[in-house]
Amino acid sequence: MTSVRNAESAIRRALRDHGRLGVDVDRVAADADLGLSPQASLNVMLALEGEFEVEFPQRMLRQRVFRSIGSIERALRDLIAA
Are 52 and 2 in contact (CB under 8 A)? Predict the structure, then answer.
């Protein structure tokens, strides 16, 4: 399991592998809108669930949660703290 301290690098890795972004994810600002498709969001979510051994609840399955690296990281921190 990845620790929350390494969340940003794990998120960037999941985006690189599953996000289908048209840009280098390492150059994307943490607050930039990722513009993920619904399928890419699902793939990233599943990768992060496996990486962090968490499950995103229904209430977090929203576009705004997967809008940016920062919003994904905040959601993961909330899940891990719960």
Answer: yes
The reported pTM is 0.91
Q: Give the 3-state secondary structure of 33-46.
A: CCCCCHHHHHHHHH
Backbone angles phi, psi at 12, to 5 degrees: -60, -40
User: How far are the Cα atoms of 5, 8, 43 from residue 40, in angstroms, in the given order?
Assistant: 24, 18, 5
Question: Would you call 48 exposed, middle or buried from its count of C-beta atoms within 10 A (0-12, 13-18, 19+)?
Answer: buried
Tell me the per-residue pLDDT of 33-68, one tens digit each, with 9 for 90 and over. 999 999 999 999 999 999 999 999 999 999 999 999
Residue 70: both structure tokens together: 């920062």
The three-class DSSP label of residue 1 is coil
CB-CB contact of 69 with 11 (8 Å):
yes
As a whole number, the mean pLDDT across the chain is 93
